[in-house]
Task: inverse folding
């Protein structure tokens, strides 16, 4: 097989494998919303349509390295014959300052929400994203590891995040309030919640997403 044909097949495969999860994650949830509307219920959070890419969050891990690759980068990095491994859903708490008492309460409630997922707990992972564009101090990192051992830690720059999300059609301002983002297993930032939303609001939408999607 010549290189040109191989590249064309690879591109076709990439397009197909990209389109399918997006359809499953986004359109199945849209159907769920329409179905819910008929029974008097609607989604609680703000649906991002089309979804933003996780790379827009510019997340870095505690070593300063990019925390996530784009879906296209994940596919490009696969070895010949290697299958793409579907990731868990992400529930990312975005904070623009030090984690005060209100922040701790929010993270605690999200932890309890995660536990309440029961058999679906492995399908979701929590992240704390600080947007002060500074690595966590060892003391802060140790606190989170001890208190919330299953939660990932990352940092970003609030201005970069704001501009990237604005380019995706979403207005977020981490400098003035915190958010919770729901991200599907292929890196689509699908929904966001403000401080006015309750953990029960997030739970309602998350259970709907998990019920209507085979991803994660």
Result:
């Amino acid at each position: 097989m010549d290189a040109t044909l191989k590249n064309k097949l690879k591109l076709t495969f990439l397009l197909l494998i990209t389109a399918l999860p997006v359809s499953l994650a986004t359109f199945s949830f849209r159907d769920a919303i329409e179905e819910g509307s008929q029974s008097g219920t609607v989604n609680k959070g703000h649906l991002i349509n089309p979804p933003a890419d996780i790379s827009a969050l510019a997340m870095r891990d505690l070593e300063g390295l990019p925390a996530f690759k784009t879906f296209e980068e994940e596919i490009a990095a696969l070895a010949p014959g290697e299958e793409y491994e579907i990731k868990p859903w992400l529930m990312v708490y975005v904070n623009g300052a030090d984690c005060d008492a209100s922040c701790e309460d929010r993270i605690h409630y999200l932890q309890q929400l995660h536990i309440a997922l029961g058999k679906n707990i492995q399908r979701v992972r929590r992240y704390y994203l600080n947007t002060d564009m500074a690595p966590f101090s060892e003391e802060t990192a140790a606190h989170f590891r001890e208190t919330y051992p299953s939660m990932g830690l990352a940092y970003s720059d609030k201005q970069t995040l704001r501009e990237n999300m604005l380019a995706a059609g979403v207005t977020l301002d981490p400098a003035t309030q915190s958010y919770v983002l729901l991200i599907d297993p292929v890196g689509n930032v699908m929904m966001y919640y403000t401080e006015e939303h309750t953990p029960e609001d997030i739970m309602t939408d998350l259970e709907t997403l998990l019920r209507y999607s085979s991803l994660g």
